Structure formats: structure tokens, C-alpha cells
Amino acid sequence: MNTEHAHGDSHGSAANDHGHGDHGHGDHGHGHGHEMSFIRRYVFSEDHKVIGLQFMFSGLIFFIIGGLLALAIRWQMAWPWSSVPILSRTLWADYGSRIPPEVYTKLFTMHGTIMIFFVIIPLLNGAFGNFLIPLMIGARDMAFPKLNMFSYWVMWPGFIIISYSFLVGAPAAGWTSYPTLANTPWSDPGSQFGQTLWLLALLCVGISSLMGSVNYMTTIIMLRAPGMKMFRLPMTVWAMFITATLQAFALPVLTSALIMQLLDRVVGTNFFTPYDWSVANGPSGVGGGIPLMWQHLFWFYSHPAVYIMILPAMGMVSDIISTFSRKPIFGYKPMVFAIAGIAGLGFIVWGHHMFQTGMNPALGATFMLSTMMIALPSAIKTFNWLGTMWGGRIHYTTPMLNAMAFVSMFVIGGLSGIFMAATPVDIHIHDTYFIVAHIHYVLFGGSMFGIFGAIHYWFPKMFGKMMNDKLGKIHFFLSFIAFNGTFFVMHIVGLHGQPRRYADYTGFDYLNNPGIIGMNQFMTYSAIMLGAAQLLLIYNFISSLIAGPKAETNPWHANTLEWTAPSPPPHYNFETIPTVYNAPYEYSLPGLDKDYLPQTERLSPELAAATAHLGHG
Amino acid sequence: MRNWSLLYIVMAVLSVIVCIYAPFDPNWRLPPNVSTTGREVDHLFELIMGITGLTFVGVSIAFGIAAWKFTDAPGRKAKYMHGSQRLEIVWTVIPAGILVFIALYQMGTWTKIKFRSEAPRVQPIAEVSARQFQWLMVYPGPDGRLHTPDDLHTVNDLHFVKGKPALIYLKSQDVIHSFFLPQMRIKQDALPGMTIPVWFDSDTASTSEHPFELVCAELCGWGHYKMRSKVVVHETQAEFDEWVKQSLKEQNRDQLKSAKTTTAAVEHKGGESL
To answer: Measured in whole angstroms, how far is the alpha carbon of residue A53 from the centre of its chain?
Structure first.
């Protein structure tokens, strides 16, 4: 695998496709990009950094859409059937100026689908994976730059299809799309053409992820800089590597499940429809399929997907915490093994989504045991983050604040998971707001705060500008408070039995009381604040992009390789491929005049000998 | 700068306060339980709440101290340290022990609620079929057997007797639904193509102060939220039998005949006015 070869190759196709002159090129890629056309450089780019940013911008745009959908959901929960500002008079004027219940089911379906498949996975893996992996391992680009370009552009049919579904009647079977609700067009207004579009959009996202994961694995195995042993990789790269493995092995199952449901819907197969069955007095098919099979196949991917949505954030947070504690990461190898353990166990816990489905309860008991065990590596990671901060010299920068929020929120999200891992308790809380609280503590409190931290941390490297730290802190402060106000209360109403995916819970005596309604209104006020706080992030992002102060090469005094490349790094990243001498987290090494030691800096033999035995408890 | 650590500390303290307050407010805790197995579920819930609560307090204290004490200050140096094997072993083995304990401890309750071999040896009180968006109940009627001409059919009306195990057969006619009795800590999906036995009991008869409800807990379409059934727990078997008798009488009433009489009366009246 030779980067020079990849470079020559990419140039060749550029010349062929666009007829731009056969300029002579230097021997290495530095400055090479200037000679490319705008389209090759910024649109159909093969540069991993540009592709990463493309993933980031599209992910952030969908983050706004998904967030607005969430606000509409919250409005209905706080004031059921009241008119929604603006939307009621425009979109829903014909429905008595309120959210029609079938639209409500579409709202949460699209919120979940967009946030998971079009925001968190593309942001964590697409954006940061692409941007950081080659820079952090000291490579000029990904192993397969063209495949990398395709992995982004395959997302576009997905973007278009999922956005188009809003126009023709969005899907409404939840982000899990369980048959037999989802696979028959006459079962629900939301199960019409929109559901077919949902399946097609997810297929596109799946193909994109698969291309990405093949590329990440190859790149990390083959293109590490000299001296970059596997156990000198930053945690971010380890997390991306293991995530890519997870994706590669789990995605084919989702893809086949999606195709099976597509066939059920389009050509009338019966993978998921049982014998002698019909819905809504519709025609009964031949049947002979099993509705539960979809859930097995779907969760066989989507449970690992939960880890795909958190492991990269864990890796990035480890980097941020170590940098701003000015201290080596506590238990580097246990951290790596914990991620690997989560990934391994992640393949044998999918049944815990199905405890109450009618799956054999004995099988439920075994899934319960494996689920309990997967809490263990998560606990180990948390303790190691605390160990990293302990005895450090904590700099409260915006990235650090967000990373610490990740840890503290992940603790709550992890502990609440034990309730639903315990099968008898799950009987009561399954499909209630308790589950909604749990997933948001992990995915928003965890992954999104990790993403916020990572955006503020790597912004200088991405754009060569610094973000406004004060604005970043205000954004963090408001987000953190509003996040807890929104989602902590969900645990409580969930325990009281408020089911999720209900357009209106006030028809039930045990829920129709001022306490439950009041809590729902409180959550909605907090959610509005949470949404408003994101405007600060957008403002800070755009204004810093335009007028932020210039960033140095290594503004945070961090050790990993990306901070040795210029900000922003040119096409092909490094003038000469760096050589790695150290582990990635050598902060505050005694005997050194500065408190960090870049991976490329060689210690004098005397100092190396004097410090070799240090720091091992 | 150090004050930032207070944000995390305050949030942790608030979380703990909410958890301590919640049991004293009827709307902030699990709905009052009325069933035998529900007591075991609640006990497990409290046990896990205790364990996770203590863990949370411990982790939050460590987090708070780390964040407060180890803030950057002039002259401070970070400790150069790569970890500690002893600590790693401690914080692997202890949580592992606790998790295995929780896992084994709950097996019995799970078995009692879900394993078919544990189902009570009684006649089923009803067959419950879910469909968009209602619960159809079939009671065996006087002959005690389902699917005979004397069956009683009701919609969104589940009846059983206090203090006796109630067994139902759960089915779905169209999509997946879920049979959720919040006050009895029972939840079981209704799956098209499958008949699933579900059993539960109640130590309290339903009154206006203790109304019970059957909730659909699995998304079943646009009307998911209105899939509610009344649950009536009768004080005695005699009361239940009386209800079956009265309902059967109502069911067997010739509605066509009475409709005819009414229509005739209306037509007669209409004719007069003409």
C-alpha cells in the first residue's frame, strides 16, 4: 500500500474526468491540491480531510432537522393537541390546527432515524474518523481514497431519499420499523411509500458505512507511520478501528434484513408475515414468515450500532481528557481491552431488546447474563477516566468541559442500563420513557457531548482558526443544564409507566394528573432551551470559521501526530512522513522542560533510561 | 476556573435529591403495585436502585474531588503515571461480582413470570386478541370452555377475580401490540401468528380509587395512544360470575328485535305528523 501510488492514481483520474492540464507534480503531495479544479478539491474530493468535513457539515445540518422534529414531539407531550406555533397554521391547518396522530408517529420515527443514521454515525465515524485517522497515524491519506470519496457520495442518495420522504408521507413505524406494521402498506398511513424510502435510505447509509469501515481497517493496519506500533495508537484511532470492525461484521445482517423487508413490501414475499394473517381487513398473504425474525436481524446490527455510536466518542474523549489533565491516560491497555471487550460482547447481547417479545424466556435469561457482563468494560473505562483526571492539572477549556460532561452523563446512562438489563425490572420499564431517558443519556449526554468536545478540540486543526472559548463555555453550560432538565425527568415519568411513542398519554387515568403533565411541560421547556443553546454553537462555528484568530500548529500542546502537521494540514498532510518514538500520552514527564512530549520527539537516551521505570503503579 | 467543577457536583447532588424525593411523591415513583410477582419486581427494582445509587454517589464523589482538587493552578505539577494494575484488578473484580450477583438473583422472578412451566394450573379466564386499536376479549362463559357458542365477547373490558391467579391467552390479529398492566408489572408483546399465555393476579379489587388500566406498549400504528382497556378486578368469584351472566344476557338480547320496535315506533310517529 503506497501513498505515492494512490496520489498518482487520483491525479490521473482527475485529469481524465475534467480535462485539466497534465501539470507536472512534485515528488510529494505537499501543496499539490492547489493545482486541482475546485470540484475535484472540494466536491468530489479524495482528500480524507475534505471528506471528513463534508460528513461533518451534512451531519450538522441533519442535526438541526432532527432537533426541530424533537421540539415538535416535546410540544405535543407538554400540551397535547394544542396548536403548534407556525406549523399548525401552515402544515396542519386542515387537521384542526393540531398535530394529527399519524403525523406524530412520523415525527418520532424521523427524529430517531435522522439522529442515529444521519447525525451520530456520520459525525463520529464519517467526520472524525475520516479527518483524524490518517493524521493521527501519520499517513498521507486513507488506503483507498476513491472508495473514501464514494463512501460520502453514497450518502447523498440517502440524504435525498430520506428528505423526499417528508414530501410523500414519511415513514411512521419507529426507527426500528418492526413488521408487521412496517411491511404492509395498508397497516398505517406511515407504512406507504415512505417506508420503502426509509429502507432505501438506510441501504445507502449502510453501504457508505461499509465502505468507510473497510477503508479504516486497512488504513490503520497498513499505513501507520514508522514507529507507530499498535500500542502507540491514540485511543481515538483504537476506537475507530474497533468500531470499523464492528460495522464490517454487523452491517451485512442489517443490509439483508432491509432487503428482505423491501421484498416483502415491493414484490410480495412473506419473510415477516405469519401464516393466515391480515391487517386492517386487507388481503391476507400466503404468510409463513416470522415477525420476530426482523427483530433478531435488526438488533443483531443495531445493538452493535449502539456501540458504533459511542465507542468513537469514548476514544476522542480519552484523548481530550488526557490532554487537558496534562497526564498520561490511566490504564492505556485496559482501556483498549475494554473497548475490544465491549465490541466482542456487543455481538451477543442483541436479545435484550426483545425480552418481552415472546422470544423464549430461557433465551432471555442468557441475554440478560451477557448484558450484565457488558456493563463491566464500561465501568472499567469510567474508572480509568477518573484515574486520568486524578492527580492531573485540569485545564477547564471548552473541549475538556464537554468531555467531562460525557463521563458524568455516561455514568448515569450506564447505570440506568442495569435496570433494563435485569429482565424482571425490564418487564415494567420496557417501552416506557425510562428507555427513552436511557438512550438519550448515552447518545446525547454521551455521544453528542463527545462530538461537541471534539468539534471544539479539533476545530483549529480543521480550519486553522480558533473557536471562541467564552461562547463555547456558555454553549456548554446551557446545553448541560438543559440536557439534564430534559432527560433526567424522563426516568421518572417512565418509571410511573408513561409509554413511549404515545401521541397523548392523558387518556389514561394513572397518567392524567398534574404531576405527570407538569413534568412533561418542564421537559419541554428544557428541550426548547437545549435547542436554543445550539444556536450559540452554530454562531460560534460560523463566526470562528470566518473571523476566528489564527491557530498555531499545536494550540493545546498535545502529543499526537495531527498536531505536528500545519493547521489546517495541506493535501497529503505531512511534508515528510513523521517517525514515532513515543506513546501518545506522555504528559508531564519528569525531567522535561515542557509538560508534553510529542510522539515525534525523541528523548535523550539518558532521560529515557531515567524515566523508563516511572509511572507504573 | 475551579468553579466549573461545581457544575458537575451540583448536577450530581440534584440527581441524588430527586432520587431521594421521588419515593415520597405518588407521581414520581412506580405506580402502586397490586400483584404477587409485582412485589418481587419492585424488590428487585429497589435493590438495583440501591446498588446503582451507591455507585453513583461513589463515582460522583471521586469525580467531584478530582475535578475540584486537581484544577490547574500556578506551580502545580501533574503526576506522571500510567496506571495501576492493582486498581484495575480491584475495579474489575468488584463490579463483576456485583453484576453476577444481580444476574443470578433475579433469575427466579423472571422464571416465575415468564416460563411456561410456571404457568398456574387453572382454566384461562379469557383469550385476549389485540387489533388496531382495541383489545378483544373472549371469556369462556358458563361451560368454562373457549370457542363454544356460549362465549362472552367484550371489547376493551378485562375482568378477573381478586386473589386468584388469572391466565389469559394473548394473540394479535394484525400487527405487534404489547399487553402492559402497569399496576401488576406485567408486559408481554402480542405477536401475530403466536398464542402466548400470560398470567397475573391482584390483591386489590378495582374501585374508583384504584382503577386499573391495560395499556398497549408497542407501537401499533397511528392510534397506538388510544389503545386502552378498562381492567376490573372483582372482589369475589360470585361477583365475577354475576358480571358474566349479566353481560351474556346483554349479549344475547336480540338487538334486531328491539331495533325493529323502536324503528316501528318512530315510523308510526312520523306517519302521524305527516
So the answer is: 15
